[in-house]
Amino acid sequence: MSKTISILGLGAMGTALDNALIDAGNVMTVWNRTQTRADALVARGARRAKTVSEAIAASDLIILCLTDYAAVDATLADVGPMLANKTVVNLTNGRPDEVRAIAARLEGYGARYLDGGIMATPPMIGSPHAFILYSGSADAFEGAKEQLAAFGQSHYLGEDPIFAAVNDLALLSAMYGLFGGYLHATALAGSVGVTAKQFLPLVEPWLAAMMTALPDYAERIDSGDHARDVMSNLAMQSVAITNIVTASRSQGIDPAFMEPMERLAQKRLAGGFGTDEISGIIEVMRAK
Ligand code: FVH
Q1: Are the C-beta atoms of residues 165 and 96 closer than 8 Å to each other?
Q2: Of 40, 47, 74, 207, which is the most buried if we count CB atoms within 10 A?
Q3: Atom 17 in ligand 1: which residue has the minimum CA distance?
Q4: Domain 4-159 CATH (choose: 3.90.230.10, 3.40.50.720, 3.50.50.60, 3.40.50.1970)
Q5: Model confidence over 166-203: pLDDT tens digits?
Q6: Which residues line ligand 1 (CB under 6 A)?
């Protein structure tokens, strides 16, 4: 069923979201601080709102996709009372403290607030590989889920509005860990003349093979038992980690990405857990 929807924020992601909603047959109203960014969407049939108030008045479902929460605050600064009985879906990346503050503020105006974390790049939106995390008002999710399905798979995580943001940041930290590790590895291999393209057939299957360790780590983490059936103990791995840091320096590569891992491994080792699996490092991460 098509329904009027307003999108505020037409950057790379907001534009992809709007295109997906148009493709799904929805009637769209669009607003962007820089108005010209709406032109292509207007050419596809979206209605241009000249002001934020116009965009809010046009729809019961309001989607925000802006750089950060400061931009969200600035955009909604003068329209709070207009949000009564509306569903606001905020797909802007943010911290839990920011999510709590905006959820309380908008709910104070009588809005239903749903926070979201987009786990996709703009070209992935609308494909089966895209998934979006949601948390906050269950009523808001129930009422909007048919429309939100246009973006990809929806995962509703619960009523606490911060769940989506925390899980989003957690998944992004896994991604940046992977990217940072890949970049460090490629720089180190490059120090002996290996190009990134030459290194790729080695690093890609290696990372894929190492991913298969995650189910076992998850079991150890949840049970707190990092000591059973250990194959690659921490004492042995910490030698390799220190070798990476030391060799990086001598090869002229900044070891900054790997140094925190070395510190954490040494801390866990100093606690007497050298015979445990490396998954036990999570215990020193949690202890701060
Ligand atoms: N693009 C991506 O790969 C990621 C994928 C995962 C989710 N993120 C999050 O999506 C949010 C928006 O990201 P984006 O890619 O659309 O970002 P930009 O293309 O840089 O567009 C930014 C929009 O925000 C508007 N904006 C910025 N500041 C303000 C403000 N003070 N008042 C009103 N609007 C503001 C900006 O407007 P303009 O510069 O065109 O006038 C754009 O519409 C983000 O949270 C990602 O983490 C994307």
Answers
A1: yes
A2: 47
A3: 11
A4: 3.40.50.720
A5: 999 999 999 999 999 999 999 999 999 999 999 999 99
A6: 9-14, 32-34, 37, 65-67, 71, 74-75, 92-93, 118, 121-122
